[in-house]
Specification:
With 534 residues, the chain is of the alpha+beta class. Helices cover 42% and strands 7% of the residues. It has 21 helices and ten strands. It is globular and about 70 Å long.
Length: 534
């Protein structure tokens, strides 16, 4: 049969994003949703699933994790909590930041579940082929895991509710909030099921054209390329799962938790699996390419998958560009960066005028915290303007995550070589001599994560948590009257209310998450299977 292909402009998402203003709870987002069972409905569903509807949430995610890492902050007199609460001068209030990067993601996950449940009913005058259905289901499963990753990265030890791994979100109950190891176990399981589905179809199967926005173009042409996107997300999830196991259910009670002086015992199986995924990506050379490392994280520069913003009527503008007049690198971060020569930094930040207004009632003036390095000032206007992009995964990031996995395995020399590749090729700097031991390799990675992915992916904060350095690196401002820093966003008020204010995360009792691949068609190749995480 012939599958009709099509292209369409990015659909307006303003109405969907508006949902993020409400503090929806899990039972509400699990309510059945009407879905037009035709190609128009599929287009709309995939546009939302690929992140168009939650771009405002992803901007908030980026700003929040960057601020909590004390790398950069938004200095605005109209809403000082972006500075005072996210950087730790005041406690984070869950009425202010609880719904940040929460409601929109869960609504999108619910939409993905709904779409997956009706895939077999879609027709183009006749039923879609088995391979087409398997590819569609695997694509959606990848996108579901992506949004759970955003939720887990923002909440960390606060936990995330996850329903029915590999299958539809259940509709009658409030999903339990899972503890840190269980959260990442479930996410890895979802990505396993996506890889399973994409593996059973012939390599290079053509995907339906135009289902995802333009920022996904590098991986949207065939199933093998999309599988590389899935492997990139899974490699990241394997690393976070490895350290979640080590850190324990509360993020600090694990017997293998790293400390300021010890590498701890991150799970070797998960790290081995991450390295295997990176090795596959490097062999394919699509998303992971030594020769293509670029300081500029944007479509056509560093290979990757990106969220595209737009000034078109009804579309979503880049929120970081809107915040740029008040968005500055903090002094502590600037001190770790060669701000005059590092191309990764200069691609995003230039000299600006730091506000002089006091932001916490007079105790901490902006000049005591922030440098005069301002986002987008004198840099690539198109990239960091209102029609700019934010990376989901990109080449520079994947190299540094590969190094993180190798450090966890004690392969320090290999990790340092990869980090120096990023430093020289993307940063334009000379290689740095680093002793091949845990502390030096770890600190080198943290230094290069900071400058490489500043205000992009949140991986600097995530590594600080993984290495058990939150106290050492993020609680140093006692000279300003105390330090109330938190490295995780709170559970929303409405979500807590749905649980009678019991938001203590629970751990899976099964000992290991199960990945269930839901076959979208009856076939010996794609029969439902249960698979344990490696």
């Amino acid at each position: 049969m012939t599958i009709r292909t099509f292209r369409w402009p990015m659909l307006a998402a303003a109405a969907i994003v508006a949902l993020g203003c409400d503090e929806s709870v899990v039972p509400d987002i699990n309510a059945p949703t009407l879905f037009p069972k035709d190609y128009t409905g599929l287009q709309s569903a995939f546009t939302g699933a690929a992140g168009s509807a939650v771009r405002a949430d992803i901007v908030n995610y980026t700003l929040d994790l960057t601020s909590m890492a004390r790398d950069a902050a938004y200095f605005t007199a109209s809403e000082p909590r972006f500075l005072t609460q996210l950087t730790g001068e005041q406690p984070i209030a869950n009425d202010a930041f609880g719904a940040t990067a929460w409601n929109g993601f869960f609504s999108t996950i619910k939409g993905i579940d709904t779409t997956q449940s009706v895939l077999t009913t879609l027709t183009n005058g006749q039923p879609l082929s088995r391979d087409t259905l398997a590819a569609l289901w695997g694509q959606l499963e990848t996108l579901k895991a992506l949004h759970y990753i955003y939720l887990a990265d923002g909440r960390d030890t606060a936990g995330v509710p996850i329903n029915a791994v590999g299958g539809a979100t259940s509709a009658g109950t409030v999903a339990p909030i899972l503890c840190l190891p269980s959260t990442w176990g479930e996410i890895v399981a979802i990505l396993d099921s996506a890889v399973d589905s994409l593996t059973v179809i012939p390599a290079g199967t053509t995907l339906i054209s135009g289902l995802v926005p333009s920022g996904y173009e590098l991986v949207s042409d065939n199933s093998t390329h999309w599988r590389d996107f899935t492997l990139a997300l899974r490699a990241k999830a394997h690393i976070e799962y490895a350290y979640a196991i080590a850190r324990g259910s509360t993020g600090s009670n694990g017997t293998g938790a790293p400390s300021a002086s010890s590498p701890g015992l991150p799970d070797v199986n998960q790290l081995d699996s991450a390295v295997a995924d990176f090795d596959t990506l490097a062999t394919h050379g699509l998303l992971y390419n030594d020769g293509a490392l670029n300081p500029l994280g944007t479509v056509g520069a560093d290979p990757g998958v990106y969220l595209q913003f737009s000034t078109a009527s009804g579309d979503i503008q880049d929120g970081l560009a809107n915040d740029a007049p008040g968005y500055f690198v903090l002094l502590g971060a600037a001190a770790q960066i060669d701000t005059l020569h590092d191309q990764r930094f200069l691609a995003k930040f230039g000299r600006g005028t730091l506000p002089t207004t006091s932001y916490d009632g007079g105790g901490v003036p902006a000049s005591a915290l922030g440098s005069d390095w301002q986002y987008g000032a004198g840099t690539q206007a198109a990239t960091f303007g209102l029609s700019g992009v934010l990376p989901i995964v990109r080449n520079v990031q994947l190299h540094l995550l590969h190094a993180e996995a190798l450090i966890g395995l004690g392969q320090y020399s290999q990790a340092i070589t990869i980090i120096n590749d990023v430093r020289t090729a993307a940063g334009g700097l000379s290689a740095q001599a680093v002793a091949p031991d845990y502390i030096d390799a770890r600190d080198f990675l943290l230094q290069e994560l900071l400058v490489s992915l500043l205000s992009e992916t949140g991986d600097h904060l995530i590594a600080i948590r993984n290495y058990g350095l939150t106290t050492e690196l993020l609680t140093t401002w006692n000279n300003f009257g105390g330090d109330l820093h938190s490295a995780a966003l709170p559970i929303p008020i409405a979500e807590a209310s749905a649980r009678n204010n019991n938001i203590t995360p629970v751990c899976s009792t099964s000992g290991a998450a199960q990945a269930v691949r839901i076959a979208p068609h009856p076939s010996p190749r794609a029969a439902p299977v249960a698979r344990r995480i490696r």
